[in-house]
Amino acid sequence: MSESSAEVEGVPVAALKRHAELSDLVEDARWRYYVLDQPTVSDAQFDAWFGELLALEEAHPSLQTPDSPTQKVGAPPSGDFAKVQHLARMESLDNAFTAEDMAAWQARAERLAEGDPGPYLCELKIDGLAIALVYRDGRLERGATRGDGRTGDDVTDNVRTIQGVPHRLTGDDVPSLVEVRGEVYIPVEGFRRLNEQLVEQGKPPFANPRNSAAGTLRQKDPRVTAQRPLRMLVHGVGVWEGAVAPRTQSETYARLREFGLPVSDLYKVVPTLTEVDEFIEHYRVHRHDPAYEIDGVVVKVDDLRTQRELGSTSRAPRWAMAFKYPPEEVNTKLLDIQVGVGRTGRVTPFAVMEPVVVSGSTVERATLHNAAIVQKKGVLIGDTVVLRKAGDVIPEVVGPVTALRDGSEREFVMPTHCPECGTLLAYEKEGDADLRCPNARACPAQIRERVYFAAGRRALDIDGLGYVAATALSQPLPPQEPVVRTEADLFDLTLEQLLPIRSVVRDPDSGLPKIDPKTGEEKVVTLFSNQNGEPSAGARLLIQELERAKQVPLAQLLVALSIRHVGPPTARDLAAALRSIDAIMNASEEELAAIEGIGPRVAATIKEWFEVDWHREIIERWRAAGVRMEDEPAPEKGPQTLEGLTFVVTGTLEGYTRDSASDALAARGGKVASSVSKKTSFLIAGDNAGSKYDKAVTLGVPILDGAGFEVLLKNGPEAAAEAAAEAAVRPEA
Ligand SMILES: NC(=O)c1ccc[n+]([C@@H]2O[C@H](COP(=O)([O-])OP(=O)(O)OC[C@H]3O[C@@H](n4cnc5c(N)ncnc54)[C@H](O)[C@@H]3O)[C@@H](O)[C@H]2O)c1
Ligand SMILES: [Zn+2]
């Protein structure tokens, strides 16, 4: 018999082995997480192991013995504190990850309760740690951690220091004995400040708010606890004696609030699973709105009698379910720290990591900003690191998992010379955090970045000149010489020049070469010719597009020059006021500073830019190649219906780009700003508007959608304000 088909009491040996292995992994992770407050694996990894364990036991029920980790809660208390027997067992929660999981939970509850278990109370799953508070005759008698559910750590002295936890209950009909359960946490802002303080004191920062709360609550010296911003929110009851008992979870919350206990406002009772799903989806998008971190939503059967009927499994109630959002933190290996060179010569260290999926995308690089930040984060090459990616925010290396070090890790050393052109790096001015390569004219990295930028949608808008092509033009593999040595060469390119170019593929975010996972080597491409050495479609497109780009409006041409501080809005102001490159070049610093939207600082950088000979050469070579250097005379102004109003544009508007929407507003005399303030007259919000939308709601700034925007352009601001008032449907809290 082969090993894979061997069985012990009907269970394949392979399954037995895996079960034992997973049990060890889970027990060890729990100990590190609950007792040491020093996890070495991510929650996602833990959940994956736990899920696999559950699945194995479902397939082979005999594996589900009473000492399996699936039958237990948390971990036994640490021994650093007095032990406490809980008055009623504290449980965990079962996890759901999909709408199907929720439906399966509801169906099982419906079967067991012999009827619809709704309505449901939906609330946020706070990422903190569980606590039980005992009040006898209204006085706080004891606070204890969950421990293994039966026995916990006595942290009463520390709990007494938590702001918002009453030492005496108030109100009518207070039970003679009540045990409330809740979550102790540190708000995100408090966590940020706490970590800043720790770093200032030369102490290691906490990895995340949950960890900081756990470490703080289990401090041996309550004076330390008292100085930290711990908070608590109540979300359940263990014991309730000597007063009329509530009948629902929501009524319980109302009563607890009357007693002076901290209860969240962010819960909602809903009739069916449809609204439960809506609540879950709402907070998936608004996950970072609350002041504290959440890792999901908890859904509870509201009726307490139904809760009792449904009862509990060995570790979790059947009447509640924790829906978990995808993890925003994972662990991965820091393979290397490499430095990239940006458009302005800034030299930035990048973490190069073993690829991992986090918040729905694969991440293998993350900026580390500068050498001081690498130091501050304390990461070494070879470390296992915590990588965080919250929604669409760029990924961030949080810090090392120091418990996993084996001595082979090594420190990162910031290079002294540009990794791409060898020039000695320098600070531009004293006190700068960033080192730069001063070789702006000839550093191939800076040329690559500038060419790529110049081809962008808001500049020359050249299709066929993406990052790979920009690399090929500025950095071909030897023996080829670069065909673009500065931007001046761009409009003189010919098909013949392009054909032989081979180059390395680079990552547009970091500028670092991409590695082919199969060969472990840099990827090389021949972009502009096919196998027979004939021009590729991409090469023809590029030549065509360059021809077209010779006619772009002046504002876009200005953006393409990479003059510092001259982005699209400033370029528009310059172009509108002076209408030609020559006029801008010949204007005095005072004349430039007098233009609306341009201050003395920007005027000075513009003047400086045009004084550099190789910059002027770009202008002259482009002019000679036939690039248009001026705008048509100003068009007849239409009615200035939006005079004196300020707008902010966000999201995607059908039929407009962000720029064309701004132009339409400007043509009617409106001002376009980049951020929402009290002075904003209207926010124009297309689809997928983000934080600007929330800010406008908070400040009471009227919001126009695509239809409202059309009304604004056609019929003016009064008509649009009416439309906005009608459409103002605010999201519920
Ligand atoms: N990284 C690791 O090594 C490691 C190890 C062990 C556990 N963990 C993490 O802990 C989880 C398991 O821990 P658990 O058993 O505490 O379960 P859980 O965190 O999945 O759910 C139960 C807990 O949720 C808390 N909670 C938060 N908000 C709540 C609310 N509104 N209503 C009710 N309860 C609420 C309660 O304190 C309760 O004890 C894992 O899924 C993993 O994320 C990680
Ligand atoms: Zn350089």
TrEMBL record:
The protein's required cofactors: Mg(2+); Mn(2+)
Record field: transmembrane: none
UniProt-annotated stretches for the region Disordered: 202-221
E.C. number(s) listed in UniProt: 6.5.1.2
Matches recorded under SMART domains: BRCT, LIGANc
Gene3D superfamilies referenced in this protein's UniProt entry, alphabetically: 5' to 3' exonuclease, C-terminal subdomain, 6.20.10.30, BRCT domain, DNA ligase/mRNA capping enzyme, Helix hairpin bin, Nucleic acid-binding proteins
Start and end residues of each BRCT domain: 637-705
PROSITE patterns referenced in this protein's UniProt entry, alphabetically: BRCT (PS50172), DNA_LIGASE_N1 (PS01055), DNA_LIGASE_N2 (PS01056)
Function: DNA ligase that catalyzes the formation of phosphodiester linkages between 5'-phosphoryl and 3'-hydroxyl groups in double-stranded DNA using NAD as a coenzyme and as the energy source for the reaction. It is essential for DNA replication and repair of damaged DNA.
Identification of the protein by name: DNA ligase
Organism (species): Nonomuraea wenchangensis
